[in-house]
């Protein structure tokens, strides 16, 4: 029933009997517009339950939402179901993700100061913590489109947020955009790379500034072929990112004639025995090249056990989720020296480091995220401490701390946040300059700039095309994906035992190019600091006069070499068959 008809129907009912407030409040007609969990009581959208999520908010007439994993995990909730659901508690502060948060705020401030982009329009933001879990991401997304107000005088129950930047994890983005897609609310991700998200039938309102894993997997497969590795082990994180990535990689290298030696998955909730079993397989396998397609937390769990068992001589291939991870490149991970993997292209964002260093609790009074950032960074308390923790003075200096938060030497994901915000701003700019009679909507109409609908912004986002301040073209293909572009990264050990990332190649190009792989082999340092290319085969190629005989029940890469029969020859080294002389 249309909204106006519902209101009319309710008023007719009221005119037919005396007003009873308690009875009237029970006559609630549920409405499913673009605000979930809202009901209509006369002219007011009413929130059924507030989620009270911690976040950073600076509202304006046009507000952009943000979803970031400011914490690594959620504390297990109470599942007794004896009381209403409470807000979840998250733990494990993520300094890297907090830099992404501040990059979003920095970018919006930069746009608001630019007189040539969205003049006379001030953008606002609402940013919430997804805690690196899909259910908390969904809670945050619902809060973004509902708002946290008790009630809203809004006859259409229009979403309070027109577009959302987020999330980092593919699983989180899949869950969130399934819900947002019902209402054509755009979700622009800065780090969700699963190729599955390119399916517009499934995810119509999803776009991203990070390339699809389809291209990363192609690059990894070409890398394996280039160095002649035919026997490769694979380890995936137990999520959509890891599973889809390894599945595509396996298909690609098998098509190129290589084989998978073993394939394991790192459980999200794992036991010591499960991780030991994976590492035992690594230790026993002939495969000396292993791809780990997982997020940094899962990879760290694996590598800790590899270190405990002192397994060396492995050439590690890293997926982009951890190839530039500070968590993994710390000094005691010497076994990872020589690691190769493809990373998102990095950029220098002028002014960002100074902005990051100015964050202070006094500028965000009572904000729990800024407070936790400060207390965690300086190991002090802004409140009266009762557990022996020193008191924060407020004079602590971010510049005095060497931390991934203020390290702007590897702005890869942060740069994708930057591009995503600018894409939304340019879409809004183009929408606001639409001329009546030449618009893209029904009867060549334009959007009402005082009442922009998310689906109208989505239309302009899909067609955005501009060159940003750093000289890069920002454009999306028909699947909402950007041009693929990667750096091939090699891990080097420095004099003090730490690791630095060295670019030794590139992969990418425009949408219609062949996406060629370019490698500077002479610049690569291999595992354990060696300069010789490692070998990883199940069987050594057969010499002349012999042929391959695949071992029963094993992959084609595992074979024995059998002498040719009398009257037959094999002239090819490594050849597979004999021919009649």
UniProtKB/TrEMBL annotation:
Annotated Gene3D superfamilies: 3.40.50.2300, GPCR, family 3, nine cysteines domain
Keywords from the UniProt entry: Cell membrane, G-protein coupled receptor, Glycoprotein, Membrane, Receptor, Signal, Transducer, Transmembrane, Transmembrane helix
The principal localisation class reads: membrane
Q: Which GO terms describe its molecular function?
A: G protein-coupled receptor activity
Where does this polypeptide localize? Answer: Cell membrane
Q: Which InterPro entries match?
A: ANF_lig-bd_rcpt, GPCR_3, GPCR_3_9-Cys_dom, GPCR_3_9-Cys_sf, GPCR_3_Ca_sens_rcpt-rel, Peripla_BP_I
Superkingdom in the source lineage: Eukaryota
**Where does the GPCR family 3 nine cysteines domain start and stop, copy by copy?**
533-578
What is its membrane topology? Multi-pass membrane protein
Mind naming one GO cellular-component term on file for this protein?
A: plasma membrane
**Region of interest (Disordered), ranges:** 1-24
Give every Receptor ligand binding region domain span: 102-492
User: What's the protein called, per UniProt?
Assistant: Receptor ligand binding region domain-containing protein
């Amino acid at each position: 029933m249309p909204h106006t008809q519902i209101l009319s129907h309710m008023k007719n009912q009221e005119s037919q009997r005396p007003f009873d407030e308690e009875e009237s409040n029970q006559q609630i007609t549920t409405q499913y517009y673009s605000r979930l969990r809202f009901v209509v009581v006369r002219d007011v959208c009413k929130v059924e339950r507030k989620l009270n999520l911690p976040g950073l908010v600076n509202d304006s007439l046009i507000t952009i939402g943000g979803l970031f994993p400011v914490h690594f995990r959620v504390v297990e909730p109470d599942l007794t179901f004896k009381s209403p659901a409470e807000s979840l508690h998250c733990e494990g502060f993520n300094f890297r993700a907090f830099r992404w948060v501040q990059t979003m705020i920095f970018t919006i401030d930069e746009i608001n100061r630019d007189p040539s982009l969205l003049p006379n329009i001030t953008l606002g933001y609402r940013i919430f913590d997804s805690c690196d879990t899909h259910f908390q991401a969904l809670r945050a997304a619902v809060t973004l489109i509902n708002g946290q107000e008790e009630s809203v005088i809004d006859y259409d129950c229009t979403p309070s947020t027109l577009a959302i930047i987020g999330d980092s994890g593919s699983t989180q983005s899949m869950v969130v955009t399934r819900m947002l897609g019902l209402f054509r609310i755009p979700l622009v991700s800065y780090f969700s790379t699963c190729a599955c998200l390119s399916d517009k039938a499934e995810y119509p309102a999803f776009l991203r500034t990070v390339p699809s894993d389809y291209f990363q997997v192609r690059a990894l497969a070409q890398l394996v072929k280039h160095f002649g590795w035919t026997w490769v082990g694979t380890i995936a994180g137990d999520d959509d990112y890891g599973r889809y990535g390894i599945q595509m990689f396996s298909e690609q290298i098998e098509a190129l004639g290589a084989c998978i030696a073993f394939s394991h998955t790192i459980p999200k909730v794992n036991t010591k025995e499960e991780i030991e079993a994976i590492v035992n397989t690594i230790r026993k396998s002939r495969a000396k090249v292993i791809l780990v397609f997982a997020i940094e937390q899962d990879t760290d769990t694996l590598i800790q056990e590899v270190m405990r068992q002192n397994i060396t001589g492995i050439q590690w291939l890293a997926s982009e989720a951890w190839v530039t991870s500070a968590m993994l490149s710390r000094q005691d991970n010497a076994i990872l020296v020589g690691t190769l993997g493809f990373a998102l292209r990095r950029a220098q964002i002028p002014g960002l480091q100074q902005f990051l260093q100015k964050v202070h609790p006094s500028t965000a009074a009572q904000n729990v995220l800024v407070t936790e950032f400060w207390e965690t960074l300086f190991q002090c308390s802004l409140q009266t401490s009762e557990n022996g923790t020193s008191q924060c003075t407020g004079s602590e200096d971010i510049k005095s701390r060497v931390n991934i938060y203020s390290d702007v030497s590897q702005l890869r994901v942060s740069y994708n946040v930057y591009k995503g915000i600018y894409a939304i701003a340019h879409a809004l700019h183009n929408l606001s300059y639409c001329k009546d009679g030449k618009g893209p909507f029904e009867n060549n109409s334009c959007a009402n700039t005082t009442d922009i609908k998310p689906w109208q912004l989505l239309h302009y986002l899909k067609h955005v095309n501009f060159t940003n301040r750093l000289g890069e073209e920002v454009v999306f293909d028909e699947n909402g994906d950007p041009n693929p572009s990667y750096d091939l990264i090699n891990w080097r050990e420095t004099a003090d035992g730490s690791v630095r990332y060295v670019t030794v190649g590139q992969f990418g190009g425009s949408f219609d190019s062949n996406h060629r792989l370019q490698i500077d082999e002479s610049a690569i340092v291999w595992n354990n600091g060696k300069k010789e290319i490692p070998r990883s085969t199940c069987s050594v190629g057969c010499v002349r006069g012999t042929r391959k005989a695949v071992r029963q029940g094993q992959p084609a890469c595992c074979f024995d070499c059998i002498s040719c029969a009398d009257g037959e020859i094999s002239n090819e080294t490594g050849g597979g068959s004999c021919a009649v002389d």
